[in-house]
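Put briefly, the fold is written as integer tokens. One such record reads:
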Amino acid sequence: MTVSGASVTPDVLDGLSLPERVALLRSRMAAVPSRGETASVRIENSDPVPVPVRSDFGEAEPVRAVRQRAVLPVPSALVEVLPHGGLVRGTVASVSGAGSLLIGLVAAVTASGGHVAVVGQPRFGILAAVEMGAQLSKLALIPDPGPDPVEVAAILLDGVDLVVLGLGGMSVSPTRARAVVARARSKGSTLLVTDGHWGGAELRLDASVHGYDGLGTGRELGRGRLRGVRLSVCARGKAMRPRTVRLDLRSENGRIEWHAEQQEQNPLSIAVST
């Protein structure tokens, strides 16, 4: 006798009462992987694993997590404002505002060994990415993808971890967006869109500049050498309340370091480097 690929021999059922037989068959069926799933990664109906999560007061508290989602790394200063601590694989996210945020996300993925393709971004800051720790050998640039950049990005989802798509002010129709999302999900890659409208993105990140360091004060205002940029990054998503973090990006020792401070009493200084 076979139940959805799980073999149950008649002798195993002999001597069992009807409720016991039903319970055994249910347990065997629950152990069968669904389509696209392997038994080694299937989450059974068991007690969730406690995961330490930082509370609003900066202390680690045990929280029950039932499901962990695979993510791409981000600058460490951004981890706590993202619901899963990174860019979730197989999803579409959008980035708007200050370009330093987009460059930092690309740098973090390549610095960890991931492959990134940047489509339709002719002014992408390669030097800034390197200063943030990006590995150029893991980065592909397609500044002019032609008349259909969405199609180019969809094809690239087959072979890279992160695809950055500059829409050039375009708005992608819901029907086409759903098709690309399905492709990203099936390939386990992440699409990061910018410079346009993409409805239904799982995560939206917006960065705004709220100050500079090094340009002088008083009569010297506007003069000097730029040493740092202060950003505010707001994260929004379908299943989360908006979260905001303030960042200081400073050039130190030949690289750009990210300093994040969510609370005055609990500063966090993180460097994005190799």
Helices lie at 10-13, 18-30, 99-111, 126-131, 149-156, 174-187. The CA atoms of residues 90 and 185 lie 4 Å apart.
